[in-house]
UniProtKB/TrEMBL annotation:
It comes from the Bacteria. Its EC number is 2.5.1.3. This is Thiamine-phosphate synthase. Keywords: Magnesium, Metal-binding, Thiamine biosynthesis, Transferase. Coiled coil: none annotated. It comes from Palleronia pontilimi. Residues 12-180 form the Thiamine phosphate synthase/TenI domain. It catalyses: 2-[(2R,5Z)-2-carboxy-4-methylthiazol-5(2H)-ylidene]ethyl phosphate + 4-amino-2-methyl-5-(diphosphooxymethyl)pyrimidine + 2 H(+) = thiamine phosphate + CO2 + diphosphate; 4-methyl-5-(2-phosphooxyethyl)-thiazole + 4-amino-2-methyl-5-(diphosphooxymethyl)pyrimidine + H(+) = thiamine phosphate + diphosphate; 2-(2-carboxy-4-methylthiazol-5-yl)ethyl phosphate + 4-amino-2-methyl-5-(diphosphooxymethyl)pyrimidine + 2 H(+) = thiamine phosphate + CO2 + diphosphate. Its cofactor is Mg(2+). Gene3D superfamilies: Aldolase class I (3.20.20.70). One of its GO terms (molecular function) is thiamine-phosphate diphosphorylase activity.
Length: 198
């Protein structure tokens, strides 16, 4: 199954209720600091929404819940890899996306046979404090050369206006967060993203 070129990341199923009817077909749910019992209900709701709309749900970090709910994808950061049971994830048939920020992390990710590699932040981001400086489009091109046919997801400061440059540099999929969630009209922005990336 080929993934869409537009990959928004949200922190609540409420965003999925807004995005999926517009035609978003690939979405990540990234929820931090939520008790697992509550988390399971939230993820189950997100999974049901995605199935109803024929969209792919990627669960960030919470691989146990993803396995329990029969999700299709999980995304792990480098810290998550330290604690995740990768054989269990693979036995459950989950596809795996992995975050990378430098060559050491990329080598580690590639050794785990991921289904996509993510690189960020391509541009400065306000989403979270990071020890990494902006990677820039040159790094996008370099990463694509190194990973070959694997899908390359780029994230960090991405906007509709910057998407074309990212694709030209070698990205297969562009991920966005605050360009949507902080926009005055998120639905209009989502429509712009879909139009730009289809």
């Amino acid at each position: 199954m080929s993934l869409d070129r537009f990959y928004p990341i949200f922190d609540s199923p409420k965003w999925l209720e807004r995005a999926l009817p517009l035609g978003v077909t690939l979405v990540q749910l990234r929820i931090k600091d939520t008790p697992e019992t509550e988390l399971r209900a939230v993820m189950a709701r997100a999974q049901a929404l995605c199935r109803r709309h024929g969209a792919v749900l990627v669960v960030n970090d919470h691989w146990r819940v993803a396995i329990e709910l029969g999700c299709d994808w999980v995304h792990l950061g480098q810290e998550d890899l330290d604690e995740a049971d990768l054989p269990a994830i693979r036995r459950a048939g989950l596809k795996l996306g992995i975050s990378t920020h430098d060559y050491v992390e990329l080598d580690r990710a590639l050794s785990l046979s991921p289904d996509y590699v993510a690189l960020g932040p391509v541009y400065p981001t306000i989403l979270k404090k990071m020890k990494w400086q902006r990677q820039g489009l040159e790094r996008v091109t370099e990463w694509k050369r190194l990973i070959g046919d694997l899908p390359l997801v780029v994230i960090g400061g991405m906007s509709v206006e910057r998407a074309a440059g990212a694709f030209q540099a070698g990205a297969n999929i562009v991920s966005a967060v605050t360009d949507i969630t902080l926009h005055a009209d998120p639905e209009a922005r989502l429509r712009q993203w879909i139009e730009t990336t289809r």
